[in-house]
Design goal:
Radius of gyration: 20 Å
Oligomer: single chain
Distance between the termini: 46 Å
Strand content: 15-25%
Helix content: 25-40%
Strand order of the largest sheet: 3-4-5-7-6-11-12-10-9-8
Largest sheet: 10 strands, antiparallel
Length: 373
């Protein structure tokens, strides 16, 4: 899909006026050196057409300036396979995305402004025990990632920053960073933040939280978001899957290849409270290893929270390099890793993609599924 076709769809979706489209174009064509102007323009777009519209403009700017490692709209070098699973009703998808591997090319990252070539380390804050500065603190990002633009957003009464994920998994992939430096761990307010974010973006964005299963930076709390629907949203829920249903609230445990509970309802407080009880109950069974992946979506006023029960000792499936997190649990399995010639003991994700089928899905999920009674 060309950028222009995509933008036309966005403008129609948000019913933007001519002057708003011009402002959107000014944002996406600006260099990151015009940071203050970009943020003012994005704030104006948000004021006029909502948070989602402003985020979409900022994301395209981050793509066009080279901060995002490849254009999600471009099919170049990418492949996709889809497999409809009759038992779950989910159409799982495998995405071959070599753009992600560019994150390991240090010289390229410097050239594109993703990382700075020379940083005054004395100015970096929140240094970890191994000497690594926190990658998600705003002050560090300003020094280490010159092309990145962080948009301040207030969600559920807390301050966050939304920044485009340079090694994107799906289109409009953002990291939503807590403005405070605090550890990545589940608290009830996380659900409130997820639900408030999908509310403020009118369901156009999905929001996720990886707990300790797939969170690469565990010392700083962050959410993620994307506009792309997750395959798991199409899961089949039968009557005998329903555990609780009353006053418009429904809790179900549909068949899936890793333990999943779905909480649905139009009363967001009830949805949050119920999802929280499920997550706390799971963590209390084994506080040392039990964690979660969470996906929150909103459609036609209905809130849906997908809770994947996870175990920190079972993070990777056979054929996948690195841990599986919310994207994979949600049915979007992104592959990009190829071991170097002669390197042994590492999975070749291209072979996984080339040979992918529904058995591959089951095998991957069996590798991460915790034992649940």
């Amino acid at each position: 899909m060309t950028e222009q076709i995509y933008l036309n769809r966005i403008h129609r979706r948000f019913r933007s006026e001519s002057d708003e489209r011009k402002l959107f174009l000014r944002v996406l064509s600006a260099s990151s050196g015009r940071r203050k102007q970009i943020l003012r323009d994005v704030a104006e777009l948000i004021k006029r057409r909502g948070l989602a519209y402003g985020l979409l403009a900022l994301y395209r700017q981050q793509v066009n300036c080279g901060f995002v490692l490849g254009d999600p709209l471009s099919p170049h070098g990418k492949k996709i396979k889809r497999f409809k699973d009759k038992r779950t009703g989910v159409e799982f998808r495998f995405l071959w995305n070599p753009d992600r591997e560019m994150r390991k090319n240090h010289k390229l990252l410097i050239k594109r402004g993703v990382i700075a070539g020379d940083v005054d380390k004395s100015k970096l804050i929140n240094i970890q025990k191994d000497g690594t500065p926190c990658y998600l603190c705003r002050d560090n990002i300003a020094l280490q990632n010159p092309a990145e633009i962080l948009l301040p957003v207030r969600i559920a009464g807390q301050d966050y920053f939304a920044g485009a994920n340079f090694a994107y998994i799906e289109n409009n992939h953002f990291t939503i960073i807590n403005a405070r430096h605090c550890r990545q761990r589940y608290e009830k307010r996380i659900l409130a933040s997820l639900v408030d974010f999908v509310t403020k973006t009118d369901g156009f964005f999905r929001a996720i939280f990886n707990g300790l299963a797939g969170a690469t930076i565990v010392w700083h709390e962050h959410l993620q978001a994307t506009t792309e629907p997750f395959p798991v949203e199409g899961i089949r829920i039968r009557q005998n899957d329903i555990l609780f249903q009353k006053s418009g609230l429904c809790v179900s445990r549909p068949f899936y290849y890793t333990p999943l509970l779905v909480v649905e309802g139009r009363n967001k407080t009830a949805v949050i409270n119920t999802a929280d009880r499920i997550i706390i109950g799971w963590q209390n069974l084994n506080p040392k290893t039990n964690t979660e992946n969470i996906i929150a979506v909103k459609s036609d006023g209905l809130f849906r929270i997908f809770i994947f029960l996870r175990d920190t000792s079972r993070l990777a499936g056979k054929g996948k390099f690195g841990g599986m997190a919310s994207f994979e649990c949600g049915g979007s399995i992104v592959l990009s890793y190829k071991p170097k010639p002669g390197q042994k003991g590492k999975p070749d994700e291209q072979k996984t993609f080339d040979n992918a089928d529904l058995d591959t899905v089951r095998r991957l999920f069996s590798g991460i599924a915790p034992v649940v009674s």
